[in-house]
Amino acid sequence: MTAVPSPQRAAAPHAALDRAGPWVDRVFRAQATLIYLFLYVPIGLVVLFSFNAGEHTGELRGVSARWYSYALNDRFAMGALQNSFVVGIWTSLLATSLGTIAALALQRATPRVRAIFDAMTYVAIIIPGIVIGIATLIFFVNIFGFVNPWLDFVWKTAGLGTPPVIGKGLHTVIAAHVLFTMAIVMVLVRTRLAGMDRTLTEASFDLFATPFRTFTQVTLPQLRPAIIAGALLAFTFSFDDFVIANFVAGPGQPTLPMYVFNSIRRGITPEINAIASMVLAVTVTALIVVGLIFRRQARQAGERSQVPVAMGIAEDA
Amino acid sequence: MTGREAGAGRRGRSRAVTALLLAPTSAWYLLLLVVPLLLLLVFSFGARAPEGGYAPALLLDNYLALPTRATAFVNTLWLAAGGTVLCLLVGYPLAYYLATRAGSKRTLLLVLVVVPFWTSFLIRTYAWITILGNTGIPAILDSLGLGRVVLINTPAAVLIGIVYNYLPLMVFPLYISLERLDKRLLEASKDLGAGRLATFRQVTLPLTSAGLLSGAILVFIPIMGEYVIPALLGGGKVFFVGNALVDLFLQSRNWPLGSALAIVLILVILTAVTFYLRVGSRAGIQREVSIL
Q1: What is the per-residue pLDDT across A258-301, written as a single tens digit (0 to 9) for each?
Q2: Which site among A33, A184, A200, B183 is 20 to 30 Å from A11 CA-CA?
Q3: What ipTM did this prediction achieve?
Q4: pLDDT tens, B22-40?
């Protein structure tokens, strides 16, 4: 449905790019189709093989849901799933609240403080997960090596009985995940704050709104897409992370990615496919719901689609 | 109390509130980022304790021993560079295709690029084990009489995994820079008699170089720290710095050597980012994509 090109028509600066000639366009289209196949066929195969009745992933031996019931009755898999939910929800809550609060406070901070925070956020984001995992592991081990003898000493002198021992566990995973996701939330909220219409806040003050009302009725609604996107990103990152959790998770408390990774190492069975398919179903449903929410909001506000922002691509348009 | 004193008091209180609001984030950064990175630096000059872990020392031995891990660095660098170039070659035409579609179709196609990116990284990589494994593509090629090939546990498998996982990170900045391109310039180029190819080479490509560079760095940096893809698709034969790090910290427990390796990895990444920012400011990047 391209408009008929005419020599008089001046292109709008941000219109869709003109298509290349029909022949070239066909090549582009074919290539795009291949890329979409490349993106979706592997995922489709994971789901397909999850219904395999046979013992091995690669050979299809009829359709059955046996691996689903096997996975759902697998105590270890379900325990890992529960751990992942606990870690993901706590990470999301902490990262979103701390990151948003910090982003708002940074507006009032001195340029020096802001520069320091920017540097930290930058480092937290570009450093690979594997280095964050190692660094936090070293830190926790040292802290525990210091705190535990001290607790031991205090409990013994006070005659309190068996001293508590602090070690790695889900809390250490949450702490490590919050480091990275908090930085992401901060970037998202700060980008949004920078693009916000200041005249609205001023108008609110001119209309005698208190700072609190201005915040809840003017600032917060404008920040909502960024905050929701941040919360989702934080949860997804945490729920999906293997590398950091592998370093700082406690013994016997694996997260779901750790369980899946270790199962793959032991040999691949359709059970992994069943677990993967269930996770995929949940993710895709959540994505659709969020997409719809954003679309409705955008329509109500009569503005451009916020989907790209929600997907984590911050546009400063 | 004079008005000025009251003002100073309010300002003092407001500063205290700001500090209080920033306190949790600062604590996190300090305790889990600054202190750990400093510990990593200190450890990198230490010695391995007999039972594994760290023993205090001030030695350069760990850095001098790094050449024994050169293979990991070579693998990481060439596969990260190769993966980035492949993502670019696959991603640019796709981004161009997306930018030339009409409104609603374009949104759908864009979302379809992002959806896999939001699904589990581990599962996406796992999917390729079966496809590239001996009962997958090699079996199909064999049954077609094209001879036996081995794909899994080769650099090719790792490259496929990289392109599969990181392609969206390349496509998005490219798409954004193509979408923002001032279309009047393309028309001007056409009016001045330039052909399609000349217009692309002299107008489109230079004007989207910022997106190109953003995409390259967004893909290159995470690949440098990659662990899962080489672990699952490289099968111990194609290993990255990340795999060496996991081995040194969790298996052989040589923390000082691992710390030195991690410090060098951080330095390489910082160099890449600095280079990007240098070239980027010349290419006129205006912080196009600020996240991911």
Answers
A1: 999 999 988 878 899 999 999 888 888 877 877 777 777 767 66
A2: A33
A3: 0.86
A4: 999 999 999 999 999 999 9
Say whether residue A142 is in contact with chain B using an 8 A CB cutoff: yes
Domain edges within chain A: 65-310
CATH architecture label of A65-310: Orthogonal Bundle (1.10)
Measured between beta carbons, which residues in chain A are less than 8 angstroms from residue B242? 128, 130, 243
**What are phi and psi for residue B153, nearest 5 degrees?**
65, 30
Residue of A nearest to B249 (CA): A134
What does the DSSP 8-state code read for residue A142?
H
Residues 92-131 of A with CB under 8 A from B: 98-99, 101-102, 104-106, 108-109, 113, 117, 120, 123-131
Q: Are B131 and B233 in contact (CB under 8 A)?
A: no
B61-283 topology per CATH: MetI-like fold (1.10.3720)
Q: What angle do helix axes A75-108 and A170-194 make, rounded to 10 degrees?
A: 40
Q: What are phi and psi of B54, to 5 degrees?
A: -125, 135
Which pair of structure tokens corresponds to residue A154?
């205090």
Structural contact between residues A166 and A148, judged by C-beta atoms closer than 8 angstroms:
yes
Whole-angstrom distance, CA of residue B227 vs CA of residue B103: 38
Other CB atoms closer than 10 Å to residue B285's CB: what's the count? 20
pLDDT tens per residue across span B169-178: 999 999 988 8
As given in the structure block, the two tokens for residue A14 are: 């941000």
Residues 6+ positions from A202 with CB-CB distance below 8 Å:
none
What pTM, to 2 d.p., does this model score?
Answer: 0.86
| CB pair distance less than 8 Å for A16 and B102 | yes
B53 pairs with which residues across the strands? Answer: B254
Query: Residue B187: which of A29, A8, A25 has the closest Cα?
Result: A8
User: What is the torsional sign of CA B154, B170, A279, A181?
Assistant: positive
CA distance B175 to B196: 19
- What's the pLDDT score for residue A270? 87
